[in-house]
């Protein structure tokens, strides 16, 4: 078994042939539990392991006697959280993951295969953090009937509408400082208008904005410091490839004439009744992936979840920006990248869901027409 080291020749060979990066992200990020696994035992002491063989074979597992579950479902969920498209680009190798496969080979043991590789780009990603100004906020609560009307009244009184997210009944006026009129509105606004007594967030605090850019790999001095004091210089890759800025994207699944399947009777139910999902932040973007457990369900899912459908499901949450979509047919998944969904990124966004981790749960809660036969053994009322 090869240890993860850029200096290990067997690891380098495996990296070239099979693309080890997805194995590392699954082990380091860890297979997270989808909603169906909320009852998994002792998930708090879950430790993850990637076993990487000298020839590139990969098994995701965990320490024996520890809590949690390693399954095709948890590995699929974690992969969908980590990616932005079919190219997983790194400074040492590019993993091509649209044909990735997971196979359960034992209890808490999942093999990974189907990953191809390409040379890395001549550049490497660099994160820059800069002072982004100041923020302050207050929380007002809305209770009872006529929530939309109460919110509109408060917005009109503020003259500057606060950011409101669907499904929330809390207003969060944000500014460089909280002016007295926002506090004074408690006596003249909507019925029951109340702000939170914890005023600490009203004190202006500095925020730092995160920017991502690229740097030529030849400008980076890559060194490995060994335990015995030796320092080994790691040269930049000798073979590179320039990738398009836009990753491959297919707005919808094209059904050839005469090959479409009739899905029969449908039932109105939350999408999450039959579909799992995982989402998260990627700078100012949010990525979200959805997966099902069978090939038949996937045939429906890939036809149903188009970019236009995603815009409809997002409803008022859709910001009008570009949405990328690609399919992972061997793990029954469809993945989306929502550009600038998090405004200026985690540290500066005005949304409550600043990490984008609830995008998947929001979409899964939306009611859609699901084929009844896909709901077998599921509660639909």
TrEMBL record:
Residues 275-368 form the AtuA-like ferredoxin-fold domain. This is Uncharacterized protein. Residues 49-160, 167-226 form the Acyclic terpene utilisation N-terminal domain. It comes from Mycena metata.
């Amino acid at each position: 078994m090869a240890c993860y080291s850029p200096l290990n020749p067997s690891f380098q060979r495996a990296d070239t042939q099979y693309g080890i990066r997805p194995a590392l992200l699954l082990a380091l990020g860890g297979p997270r539990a989808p909603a169906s696994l909320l009852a998994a035992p002792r998930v708090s002491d879950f430790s993850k392991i990637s076993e990487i063989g000298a020839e590139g074979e990969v098994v995701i597992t965990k320490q024996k006697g520890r809590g949690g579950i390693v399954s095709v479902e948890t590995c699929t969920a974690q992969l969908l959280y980590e990616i932005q498209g079919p190219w997983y680009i790194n400074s040492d190798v590019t993993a091509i993951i649209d044909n990735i496969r997971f196979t359960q080979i034992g209890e808490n043991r999942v093999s990974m295969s189907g990953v191809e590789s390409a040379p890395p780009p001549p550049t490497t990603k660099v994160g820059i953090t800069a002072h982004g100004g100041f923020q302050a906020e207050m929380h007002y609560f809305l209770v009872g009937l006529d929530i939309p009307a109460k919110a509109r009244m408060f917005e009109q009184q503020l003259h500057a509408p606060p950011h409101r997210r669907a499904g929330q009944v809390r207003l969060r006026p944000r500014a460089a400082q909280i002016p007295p009129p926002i506090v004074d509105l408690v006596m003249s606004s909507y019925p029951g208008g109340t702000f939170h007594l914890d005023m600490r967030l009203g004190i202006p605090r500095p925020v730092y904005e995160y920017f991502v850019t690229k740097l030529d790999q030849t400008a980076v001095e890559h060194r490995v410091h060994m335990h015995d004091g030796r320092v080994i210089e790691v040269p930049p890759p000798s073979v590179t490839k320039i990738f398009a800025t836009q990753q491959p994207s297919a707005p919808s699944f094209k059904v050839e004439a005469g090959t479409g399947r009739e899905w029969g009777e449908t039932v109105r139910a939350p999408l999450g009744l039959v579909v799992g999902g995982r989402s998260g932040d990627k700078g100012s973007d949010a990525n979200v992936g959805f997966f099902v457990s069978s090939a038949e369900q996937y045939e429906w899912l890939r036809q149903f979840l188009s970019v236009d459908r995603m815009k409809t499901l997002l409803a008022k949450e859709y910001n009008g920006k570009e949405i990328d979509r690609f399919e992972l047919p061997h793990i029954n998944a469809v993945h989306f990248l929502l550009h600038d969904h998090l405004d200026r990124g985690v540290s500066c966004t005005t949304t409550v869901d600043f990490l984008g981790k609830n995008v998947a749960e929001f979409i899964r809660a939306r009611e859609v027409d699901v084929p009844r036969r896909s709901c077998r053994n599921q509660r639909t009322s």
